[in-house]
Write a structure and sequence with these properties.
428 residues; alpha/beta; Rossmann fold; pyruvate-formate lyase- activating enzyme; OB fold (Dihydrolipoamide Acetyltransferase, E2P); 3 domains; four-stranded parallel beta sheet; 22% strand; globular; binds 5'-deoxyadenosine; binds iron/sulfur cluster
């Protein structure tokens, strides 16, 4: 999400003659795009701001801004607590950057953290900041209307709003023109994408179909799906389009119905298992990844064991795994105690990670012997004679080869693996 937002910000700033640079020494303005989902993310931003304080002492004229969720959450407090900060801009106020920068140039501080019910930045063509020019993020909606008890996102990114489908397909066509071969459609909860104007209704399924039809050589991915909203219709439709990638990210958070209820996720363990069975039925060759939180408030040893057993049952190919971090002003912070001791959270997280490492290895081992189409992303960091790319299942493959470019599709036989990477040989 944040990469996509940084690309919108770069486009807004280009309109007032700023250019992006990777070299801090060259910069007139340094913006730190922030995440508030876990406390650790915020602590890292604070550390970064301290470093920038020292940097500013040596480069007096540079301006420093904080944008994104932490700007939205802390507002004026950030200006009070972090003297290095000149500018604070929330996720719906990026169009105001030029005016705010004028205030800063006049010697003041700039702040705008107003949330909007309509802003989608649909008309802004993002300045791509990726390096490989193969895969691009395309934001299709903003905000989230769910109320997961642990989550700060609904209050930092506001209500859900969907982007005009024509602006989405227009952006995708422009990307293809620039040589991109893969798009990732982005939203906090993509399945609730809904466009409604003058009787014209477009669902997520319909949008996905429109994008998939633009070019069969364009790979289409999307994230994030909510288990309560991932419909059978969507799965059937994915099956019709081989260029819609065979990889689904479906955050489970916990394997215990009791914890899921306390998390206000609005599905049970059995509902989640039903979703996984539907995926296996309609898209048997699909990889499945998830997000898991260890040590949510009130989580017992039995709840934790249910998470482990669900992981084992689902055989996740990949997971993002976190310790629960209580966030201010969330339902959980207001109603529950953060009562799982730190060492218990750490131990449970470690158990989840070791199980996932085993599952990831198993999932990679199952690939050995398969012939997969790989979209080349570049030369391997470890060897100039090797390329790397991704399968439709979102697994990274390293294989020998030189004479191909990022964006080429190659047939590769998988010959070996670690728990994180596949190795293969290019077939003629
Ligand atoms: N503590 C830990 N993990 C969290 N996530 C969201 N909020 C929290 C929190 N307070 C995780 C969820 C979500 C992912 C983006 O971040 O697993 O799916
Ligand atoms: Fe947060 Fe839940 Fe919305 Fe995801 S679906 S952004 S976890 S509130």
């Amino acid at each position: 999400m944040n990469v996509a937002d940084s690309e919108v910000v770069a486009a807004v700033l280009r309109r007032c003659n700023y250019r992006h640079t990777d070299k801090p020494g060259e910069a007139d303005l340094i913006l730190v795009n922030t995440c508030s989902v876990r406390e650790h993310a915020e602590q890292r931003v604070r550390a970064r701001l301290r470093e920038l304080g020292q940097f500013k002492q040596m480069h007096g004229s540079v301006k420093v801004g904080v944008i994104g969720c932490m700007a939205e959450r802390l507002k004026e407090k950030l200006l009070e607590e972090e003297p290095v900060v000149d500018l604070v801009v929330g996720p719906d106020a990026y169009r105001e950057l030029p005016a705010l920068l004028e205030e800063v140039d006049g010697g003041g501080k700039g702040i705008n953290t107003l949330l909007s019910t309509e802003e989608t930045y649909a008309d802004i063509a993002p300045v791509r900041l990726d390096k490989n020019r193969v895969t691009a993020f395309v934001s299709i909606m903003r905000g989230c209307n769910n109320h997961c008890a642990f989550c700060v996102v609904p209050s930092t990114r506001g209500r859900e709003r969907s982007r005009d489908p024509e602006s989405v397909t227009g952006e995708v066509k422009a990307l293809i023109g620039q040589g991109y071969r893969e798009v990732i459609l982005l939203g906090q909860n993509v399945n609730s994408y809904r466009w409604n104007k003058n009787g014209d209704r477009v669902s997520f399924e319909a949008l996905l179909e429109q994008v998939a039809r633009i070019d069969p050589l364009l790979r289409v991915r999307f994230t994030t799906s909510h288990p309560k909203d991932l419909s059978e219709g969507l799965l059937k439709q994915m099956a019709l389009y081989p260029n819609i990638c065979r990889a689904i990210h479906l955050p489970v958070q916990s394997g215990s119905t009791r914890v899921l209820r306390r998390m206000k996720r609005r599905y049970t363990r059995e509902d989640y298992m039903g979703r996984v069975e539907a995926i296996r039925k309609h898209l048997p060759d699909t990889s499945l990844s998830t997000d898991i939180i260890a040590g949510f408030s009130g989580e017992t040893e039995e709840d934790h064991r249910q998470t482990l057993s669900l992981m084992e049952w689902a055989g996740f190919d990949f997971s993002f795994m976190f310790k629960y971090s209580q966030r201010p002003d969330t339902f959980a912070a207001n109603r529950y105690n953060d009562d799982v001791p730190a060492e218990t959270k750490a131990r449970r997280l470690n158990e989840i990670i070791s199980l996932q490492t085993r599952l990831s290895r198993k999932s990679k081992e199952k690939e050995v012997g398969q012939i997969r189409e790989v979209l080349v992303e570049g030369t391997s960091k470890k060897s100039e004679t090797h390329l790397f790319g991704r399968t439709s299942q979102n697994m990274v493959v390293v294989f020998q080869g030189r004479d191909y470019r990022p964006g080429d599709y190659l047939k590769v036989r998988i010959t070996g693996c670690t728990s994180a990477t596949l190795f293969g040989e290019h077939l003629p």
